[in-house]
Write a structure and sequence with these properties.
The complex is a heterodimer of chains A (152) and B (251). With 152 residues, chain A is mainly α. Chain A has six helices and no strands. Chain B has a three-stranded antiparallel beta sheet, with helices on one face. Chain B folds into two domains: 109 residues, no CATH class; 133 residues, no CATH class. Classes of the chains: A mainly alpha (152), B mainly alpha (251). At the A-B interface, helix 1, helix 4, helix 5 and helix 6 of A face helix 2, helix 3, helix 5, helix 8 and helix 9 of B.
């Protein structure tokens, strides 16, 4: 139940961000779906492997794949689908707690929270970049007109 | 093509590049777009260099020699609808090669493109902060409190946007105000957890586009831009988080 609420909240948050970035019409729907997919994969992986960094990595791999595919279908920059989908993964909570621990001079808490925030951001970054790079290589193999930025 | 025409076309390409950069494109996209547009109009060699705040282009072709233009780019608007339309415009330009007047018209049209009205934007702010409070484990009271603060932050941001205050200071002021409101709402019993309310509002201000673009830039070879964007977004996130915790320090 709690997971369902979280998934719905993540989707609503992605919808909010997609609208904040002025995405419109059909693209708004697909950008929101990206957020749903991203957090859905996170929760699914959590059942198999409780390590949050592994969940973050798998989730960002999936949502980058989704964003790259959508960008090519809609012929629009990947950023449009990637950013709003990746928002629920951003470690905002541990960022806040890091600073709260800093303010109250709770050094063990500070170390723990800042390590989590940094490592989580790093695993997200790893997921996004490896997928982008591999997708790019595979895509260019199958297309003559590769490397055209404005096609996606 | 004579020299005057070349300068005019180059200026159009630069305007498109500038707008792309402002509206959240990666640097490699900006460079690629300018290069392709210049090539489409018959340049033999085009060298584009762009970082987050500047674009330099030199193109060479028979008939007009060497032309160079520079743009200083300031401001970020993160309007992905414009980004999408500019991308489409650049694709069309390379296919149909219109006159510079036509390009200027199309650019003007994109610049005045639709935005969500203020009322809808207020709703968006409430939706984002409310849903992220719930997402990080808050209850319905936290969600309501966070949504109220989200609306207040939108007003504060609109007011500060009319003054010459820079965006970093705006973010700092917004987050300090947000932190105070979170504490006040918990004191009055509308919210339940100060931290979960503030976390919802932090997500609102966090530079998501800058962060993902920093990664994309860095790994597509534009290390300088990636580093600039990365430092900018980390600095901004830290300032925002500090601002929100600052109020808790006093209460």
């Amino acid at each position: 139940m709690q997971e369902f609420v979280q998934l719905m909240a993540a989707t609503a948050g992605s919808l909010g961000f997609a609208a904040l970035f002025n995405i419109r019409g059909k693209k708004l729907v697909f950008a929101t779906l990206g957020g749903f997919l991203g957090w859905g994969v996170y929760l699914a992986v959590e059942h198999v492997n409780a390590n949050p960094y592994a969940c973050g990595f798998c989730s960002s791999v999936m949502l980058t794949l989704y964003a790259e595919c959508m960008a090519r279908i809609h012929k629009t920059p990947v950023t449009v689908f990637l950013v709003s989908a990746a928002i629920p993964l951003i470690p905002g909570a541990s960022l806040y707690r890091t600073m709260a621990c800093l303010m109250s001079r709770d050094w063990p808490g500070f170390t723990e929270q800042s390590t989590y925030a940094l490592l989580f951001a790093a695993s997200m970054a790893a997921g996004i970049t490896t997928t982008t790079v591999i997708f790019q290589i595979v895509w260019d193999c199958f297309r003559k007109r590769g490397g055209y930025k404005h096609d996606r | 093509m004579n020299r005057d025409d070349a300068e005019q076309y180059l200026s159009c390409a630069m305007s498109i590049g500038e707008q792309l950069l402002i509206n959240g494109a990666e640097v490699s996209r900006v460079e690629d777009t300018i290069r392709r547009i210049c090539m489409a109009y018959g340049a033999l060699r085009v060298d584009v260099f762009s970082i987050t705040s500047s674009i330099v282009t030199t193109m060479y072709g028979e008939g007009f020699g060497t032309c160079t233009q520079t743009r200083r780019v300031s401001g970020m608007s993160n309007d992905l609808n414009k980004l999408d339309e500019l991308n489409e415009l650049s694709r069309n330009i390379c296919e149909t090669r219109p006159e510079p007047e036509r390009i200027a018209e199309a650019l003007e049209k994109i610049q005045n493109g639709p935005r969500y009205s203020l009322g809808v934007q207020i709703l968006i702010y409430a939706l984002i902060s409310g849903s992220f409070s719930l997402f990080f484990g808050g209850n319905l009271k936290d969600m309501a409190a966070s949504a109220i603060i989200g609306v207040l932050l939108k007003f504060l941001e609109t007011v500060l946007g009319r003054t010459p205050v820079n965006t970093l200071i705006t973010a700092l002021l917004c987050s300090v105000a947000g932190g105070f409101c979170a504490n006040l709402l918990v004191l009055t019993g509308i919210g339940a957890h100060t931290d979960l309310i503030s976390i919802g509002n932090i997500m609102l201000l966090i530079p998501g586009i800058a962060f993902t673009n920093a990664l994309r830039d860095m790994f597509s070879g534009d290390t300088i831009t990636g580093a600039i964007r990365f430092v900018e977004s980390v600095l901004r996130s830290v300032i925002i988080a500090l601002g929100f915790t600052f109020a808790g320090f006093l209460f």
